[in-house]
Structures are given as structure tokens and as C-alpha cells.
Amino acid sequence: MGDSSDHLGKKLFKETLIYSIGSFGSKIISFLLLPFYTFLLTKKDLGEYDIFITTITLFVPLVSLQISDSAYRWLIDRDKQNERLKAEIITNTMIAFGVGFFFFSFLFLIYSVFETFEYKEYFFTLMFLNCLLPILQSILRGEGDTKKFAVNGFITTFLVIIFNVVFIYVLHLRVEGILLANIVAYTIASLFMIFQIRIFKYCSFKYLNKKLLKEMCHYSLPLIPNLMSWWAIGSASKFIILHYLGPEANGIYAISSRFPSIIVIINSVFVLPIQDAFLKKDIKMEDFSNLLVHFIKIEFSVILILIAGAPIYTKYVVNNEFYESWKYMPFLYLGVGFNTVAALISLIYQKRRSTAKITSTTIIGGVVSIVLGFLLVERWGLYGISVSYFSGFFVVYLLRYFDLKKELKLGINEFYYIMSLIFIIATIYLMNILGFKFQLLLLVLMLILVSFINKKIILNFLKND
């Protein structure tokens, strides 16, 4: 038993290290674009760009039929020696995407005849690339080639940074520069992956399997409303802000929402290898439950530190014009935390290939978030929006936790977790009424508290080191 756990731990550590190269290291570099944007773009520019990207994010699941998830799920279950099945999976994936994008192109053409909007050509091109890139990445992951997946993640981000500097700083293209930077970077990255996968070898109409295509679509199509509900929780609020508070407020909120991406980056490093191992059946339910308990503890410890430090690091990272953005970050951090835990719990649904349950819980969370957004925006402004964001993900987490509670057997003290959440909310309130020096003191106290809570993990780490 001990040897098995050690082997699992070493395997997960190795996978995490590989994912770190592509996910953590590269995306932390992209985070450096944040001050770059705030010094070279106005609130209005950032607000416009954020709405543009938010709209693309809404349509990507519809256009791609979310077939990337099916590609990953089927490839990961495949016997690695079965080249024929691999070709069928890749062919069916690309055919499904082709059909989805054809219908989008047709509708977009009709819409363009009657309506004109700025950056129309960029919208169409980025829609295609934002659909294609995840499909190619999912194929690499499904093949188990985590090294190639990681390297491509690093290359993509590096290219985005380089072209952002060229188009915004050198050529002064502002919003258009960001869009061009993404287009050029994603095109190069996609071509690189196409040759790595040797997609032309595996993609042919002779490999069309109608039964398999139906099964893959049956798995992926219920995920479309699921992802659109995630969009409703995370992004629909930006349209509410635009309507009630204007594009400048959207620019502030765009910066606020960028900071919690630190948690998303860190999470992706740990969550992806756990997902791989769980779906490959390398992790038993008991081990998964133990992992989840430790993850929750560490996750919210990190979130507590980031919340307490928000007014301090924001002061030195962004332009003064955007400084107030720190006030809206705490509830966004909490939302991201509960989103990740909910996503980990949903691996049980994925293992069963029961995607409908994932969708139903997310739709409820999306409705809660949008309703609260409308109710709170006029009274509390951007505070109301950040609270609605947190509430949506918290509801999704609760629904999945109580549905799978018996199966998970986490053995957690629910009263302890409720009190911890109340403590974090009280910390958020204190931050808003304290001056900068007391905020620094609060951060130091939080660091001491988190170290005490995680002393066993820290001591074990030091011993192993």
C-alpha cells in the first residue's frame, strides 16, 4: 500500500512539474502584461477589449460544439496501440468542429450584411483560433504527451507577450494591437501543434465513424450549456457593468478580474494531472478524497494571503488610475476557489460520462449570479458584481458537494468551513476600513495564521526536502 501511494505521489509530482512548465511558468510571465496594459491603455480601451474577448468566450462552446472535451476523454481511454481508433477520434473531432464553424460562418455572414461593428474581421479570425487551439491541446493531452502540451503552452504565451510588445508598444495600435498579437501568436502555435500531432495523417474521411461521432457529441453537447453557464457566472456581469456603470467601470473590473487569474494559473498546474490520473483510474476514490481535502486547505490558505495582500501588491503593479481595482478582488478570489473545487468534484461525473449533471448544477449557479448581478449593481456598484460572481460559483460547489457527499467521504467538519468563510468575509470588511499601514500588518498576521494552519504540510515538506 505504501509503495503504491509513493508511486502515485511520484507520478503526480512528475506530471505536475511538466504541466508547470507550460501552465504556471509561462502564464505568470503573461501576468506581467497587466501593468503593461494599465500604463499604455486607458480604462475605456481595456473595457472594450474585455467585452470583445468576453463575447468570443461565450460563443466558443457553441461554435466548437465543445468537442475538445470529447477528444480528450476518448483518447485518454484508448489503447495506445490502436492507431485506427486514434485516427477515428481525431477525424470525428475535426468533422464536428468543421460543421459547427460552418454554421457559425453562415450566420455571421448574414449578421454582417445587416449590422457592422468594429474589429469584425478580428472577431471572426479569433473565433476560429479560440476554437481550434483547445482542440489541438486536448488531443495532445489525450495522447498522454504532457511534455509537448507543456512546451506548446509556454510557446503560445511567449508569442502572445512578444507580439503584444510589438503591436502595442512599438506600433502603438492599442486595442487593435492586442487582437493582432493574439491572432499571430495563436496561428503560429496552432500550426506548430498541427505538425506535432501529424493531424493530416490521422484526419481523413475514410476514418469517419458515425456511431463514434454520435457518442462523442452526446458527451460534449451537454457541456455547451454548462460552459455558457460558467460564462454567465464569470463574464455576463461585464455586460451588466457596461449597461449600468459604463466602459470605464468595465476597465477597472477587467483589472480586478485579472488578478484572480493567479489562482487559475496555480490551479491548472495541480488540477490537470489530477484529472489525468483520476480519469485513467490511477487514483482510487479514497486517495482522491484525501487529495481533495488537502487541496481545499491549501487553496483557501493561498486565497486568504492574496486577499489580505490585495491593496499592497496592486499599489506597485498597476497604474494609480486602476488602484481601486483591489477592492473588488477578494470575492473574485473566493469565486475562483470554489469554482476549482467544484470542477474537481465534477471529475466523478466525467468519469461516469454523465455530463448532464455537470450542466444542471452550473445552470443554477449561472441564474443565481445573473439575478444577483442585476439586483446588486445599482446599489453596490462593482462590489455587487464581485459578490454575484462569488455567489454563482459557491452555489455550484454546494450543489455538487451535497449531491456527491456520500461518495466523496471527505470527512470534513462543515461547521469549521462555515466559520472559516465568515472569517474571510470579516477580513475583507477590515481591509476596506483600515489604512495602508494596518493593511500591511493584517497581511503579516494572515501569513502567520496560514503558516500555523498548514504547519503539518510545511513540516512534512521540509522533512522530505
Structural description of this entry:
- This protein is mainly alpha-helical.
- It has two domains: 1-25 and 236-465, no CATH class; 32-65 and 67-220, no CATH class.
- It is 86% helix and 0% strand.
- It contains 23 helices and no strands.
- Helix 4 (67-77) packs parallel to helix 6 (120-142) and helix 7 runs antiparallel to helix 8 (174-197).
- The radius of gyration is 22 Å and the shape is globular.
Please mark out the parts with pLDDT under 50 across 5 or more consecutive residues, or reply none.
Answer: 1-9
Q: What would the average pLDDT be, to the nearest integer? A: 81
Instruction: Estimate nothing, just give the exact number of structural domains.
Output: 2
SSE order:
HHHHHHHHHHHHHHHHHHHHHHH
Summarize the structure.
With 465 residues, the chain is mainly α.
Helix and strand topology:
Blueprint: H1 2-31, H2 33-40, H3 43-64, H4 67-77, H5 83-114, H6 120-142, H7 146-170, H8 174-197, H9 199-202, H10 210-220, H11 223-234, H12 236-244, H13 247-258, H14 261-279, H15 285-317, H16 329-345, H17 347-352, H18 355-380, H19 382-403, H20 405-408, H21 414-433, H22 436-453, H23 455-464
Helix pairs in contact: 1-7, 1-14, 3-6, 3-8, 3-11, 3-12, 3-13, 4-5, 4-6, 4-10, 5-6, 5-10, 6-8, 7-8, 11-18, 12-13, 12-18, 14-15, 14-16, 15-16, 15-21, 15-22, 16-19, 18-19
